[in-house]
Amino acid sequence: MCESKLFVRENGDERLVSDDIVSLVLTEEGYYKAYRMDGKVFELKGYVLDHIDFLKHKIVFRRC
Question: Minimal CA–CA distance to 22: which of 40, 35, 38, 5?
Fold first, then answer.
């Protein structure tokens, strides 16, 4: 499978939030929801997408 790892960057450090992310959705309200394979959902309010590395299966957000 091609699951990704979800990270947040704060104060120059990256922190792993979750692995096994299979879907990322921008809501109509302007924040992101990341869905794990097991159905768990992470809401990323107050963050913006920094970058996605498809080769490393890595999604990185940063504080806005």
Answer: 35
Tens place of pLDDT per residue across the chain (64 aa):
689 999 999 998 999 999 999 999 999 999 999 999 999 999 999 999 999 999 999 999 999 8
H, E, C per residue of 46-57: CEEEEEEECCCC
Total of domains in the chain: 1
Residue-range definition of the domain harbouring residue 32: 4-63
Q: Which helix (H) or strand (E) holds 7?
A: strand 4-10
Read off the pTM. 0.91
Which residues, listed in sequence order, are joined to residue 39 by a DSSP beta bridge? none
